[in-house]
């Protein structure tokens, strides 16, 4: 039995389509996972940062003898 070029191209198209759709699914999943990881890392770092209160924001900065500024705690 002879295989026609139409059958070969049809099979090649189906396999390429399946591969490209799975590649798209993998890349979209990895992008989504990296986005979730970044959001979780940002929210985690925001939660653990010491927050300045409204009063601390309006306090004048204390100047040291070396000229560097630091906030009163």
TrEMBL record:
The chain crosses the membrane at residues 21-41. Residues 55-73 have a biased composition (Basic and acidic residues). It comes from the Eukaryota. Keywords: Membrane, Transmembrane, Transmembrane helix. Residues 51-73 are annotated as: Disordered. This is Uncharacterized protein. It comes from Armillaria gallica.
């Amino acid at each position: 039995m002879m295989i026609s070029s139409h059958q070969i191209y049809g099979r090649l198209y189906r396999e390429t389509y399946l591969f490209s759709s799975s590649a798209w699914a993998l890349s979209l999943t990895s992008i989504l996972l990296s986005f979730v990881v970044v959001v979780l890392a940002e929210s985690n770092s925001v939660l653990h940062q010491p927050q300045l209160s409204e009063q601390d924001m309006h306090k004048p900065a204390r100047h040291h003898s070396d000229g560097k500024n630091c906030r009163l705690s």
